[in-house]
Amino acid sequence: MSYSDFTLERVIQTFDLKIVDRQNLFSSVPEQQSSDFLKETLRRSVPLAIASNSEKARSEMIIAPILIELREQLHEQISIFSGIDFTVDPSQGLNGICDFIISNSPELIILKAPVVAIVEAKKENLNAGLGQCVAEMYAAQHFNQSHNNSLQSIYGTVTSGTNWRFIKLSAQTIYIDLDEYYLSNINKILGILVSTIDQDI
Length: 201
Hints:
Strand content: 15-25%
Number of domains: 1
CATH class: Alpha Beta
Shape: globular
Radius of gyration: 16 Å
Order of helices and strands: HEHHEEEHEEEEH
Number of helices: 5
Structural class: alpha+beta
Largest sheet: 8 strands, mixed
Distance between the termini: 36 Å
CATH topology: tt1808, chain A
């Protein structure tokens, strides 16, 4: 069993989590102005990613440039890991490959705590990716605790690159934003991503 085997119902039952779904969970988060470089990159790459319509294409051509922009905006004080093995506890199914992990550490070679956010790429049906993303977030929570670097909250997003759904894990409660955020408002997406790092926002 691995992260990809978890449905939302299964992860909640397995780890005794409580779920709260609500609209406007991140609506008050301020926007973050995107660079002209990101806008031009997306202008060129989004049509290719959509035409290809694979998770790999969307990850490489849409999601990765946005996360690189995030790192630039945060003055390279975070690290981003793509497609790495994130094995925390195989006995509980907390093992497998994560599409993207964001750590609040500038270390680029070795993943260090605290892990603050998980980004799960799906080419369609974002709801189907919620269980996997929550399992990875729960693993991140335990990874941080095992490294004596606990955070109040872990954040996650399931995204097709063009549509984004955001999730928050605090203690044993999962908060799922029922709103979707669209690439047409990239500044709002960037603002939410920044808020996952700066948790005082």
